[in-house]
Amino acid sequence: MSPLADITLVCWIVLELGLRVREAVQGKGRRDRDRGSRVLIALSLGGAIGVAASSSSSAPAGLQAAGVAVMGAGLALRVWAIATLGAAFRTTVEVEPGQAVVTSGPYRWVRHPSYVGLWLIAAGFGVASGTWVGLAACLVLPLPALVNRIRVEEAELGRVLGDDYRRYQVRTARLVPGVW
Fold it and tell me: What does the DSSP 8-state code read for residue 1?
């Protein structure tokens, strides 16, 4: 496995831990509406990365570099999405009454760019692993947890933000512009 892939993975983990610390300090991050979706995402991503790491081979440098580039793009997209939401971002499903529907930054193209970022981080790690097993695990294992989280989150966003969010849903794809 590429040392750059490992460094990128560590940077992502530090980001996620920092987000949880921020939530704890601010008294945010309630899990009553989360339905365990944050835990499922963590387990699926951890499992996928674990499979990729344990099956990794000496991939060609170009393949490792491509994987690191995809990881970097995913990390950058996740950071951009988090920065765009600002104080409204949570790692749990938590929507404040009166919160505005954000349609700027990456949210102008997809409703859940931070989840696209997570998936790209995992996919890139799978590519960098240099094995089909690692790539398949990183592409497939996180998806059910991410789709579940999207369902939970969109139900809460629709409940709290109402018609403003429903109009946004009609014109903006979930994860892939023009597809879904």
Answer: -
C-alpha of 170 from chain center: 22
Query: In 93-175, at which residue ranges do the beta strands (DSSP E only) sit?
Result: none
Domains of the chain: 3-28+36-171 (1.20.120.1630)
Reported residue count of the chain is 180
**What's the CA gap between 165 and 102, in Å, rounded?**
9
Q: Does this model's pTM top 0.70?
A: yes
Complete DSSP assignment for 112-173: -HHHHHHHHHHHHHHHHHTSHHHHHHHHHTHHHHHHHHHHHHHHHHHHHHTHHHHHHHHHSB
Please list the pLDDT of the chain residue by residue as tens digits (180 residues): 688 888 999 999 999 999 989 888 887 766 667 778 888 999 999 999 999 999 888 778 888 999 999 999 999 999 999 999 998 888 888 888 888 999 999 999 999 999 999 999 999 999 999 999 999 999 999 999 999 999 999 999 999 999 999 999 999 999 888 777
